[in-house]
Design goal:
It contains two helices and seven strands, in the order ββββαβββα. It is of the alpha+beta class and 129 residues long. Strands 1, 2, 3, 4, 5, 6 and 7 form a seven-stranded mixed beta sheet that branches. The structure holds 8-OXO-guanosine-5'-triphosphate.
């Protein structure tokens, strides 16, 4: 199974989401940015590298928040949501949009299916209600 690290960056009750561009798998779906964990790399190293590569943001990884296994047609992924702090001005080097979403609105976005359990748990753990 493929391990994929995803950044959970939260600021003032909002969380960063990016949209997968045309030509990518899951085009048009919103996700927590990140990518596959490479051999020899920790999940934290992976997410810091991916956030630099995809958004040119400095990123400091904190702890794993939650993992979500999902069976796509092309195979299963284990999506590992990592709490992070980012700094800088994002540049869209891979995605076609980026937004900071109030947690209350998170489930109204067309999220990649593997992300939905993590979004729900974020809402439960950090939401106002
Ligand atoms: N980055 C990221 N990928 C996700 C999320 N949710 C989800 O199902 N995925 C899936 O996880 C897989 C790996 O993501 P990716 O394509 O960004 O990773 P990558 O750049 O390392 O791999 P690649 O170069 O083979 O495409 C993709 O099939 C993607 O659709 C998510 O929240 N973030």
């Amino acid at each position: 199974m493929k391990n994929v690290a995803a950044a959970l960056a939260m600021v003032n009750g909002t969380v960063m989401l990016t949209r997968r561009a045309p030509n990518q798998q899951l085009e048009g779906y919103w996700e927590f940015p990140g990518g596959k964990v490479e051999p020899g790399e920790t999940v934290q190293q992976c997410i810091e590298r991916e956030i630099k590569e995809e958004l040119n943001l400095a990123c400091v990884a904190d702890r794993v928040f939650m993992e979500s296994v999902y069976e796509y047609e092309g195979g299963a992924i284990n999506l590992i949501g990592v709490l992070v702090t980012v700094s800088g001005e994002p540049e869209l080097l891979v995605h076609d949009r980026l937004t900071w979403v109030p947690l209350d609105d998170l489930l109204t976005f067309k999220l990649a299916p593997a992300d939905i359990p993590i979004a729900k748990e974020l809402l439960r753990a950090h939401g106002p209600n």
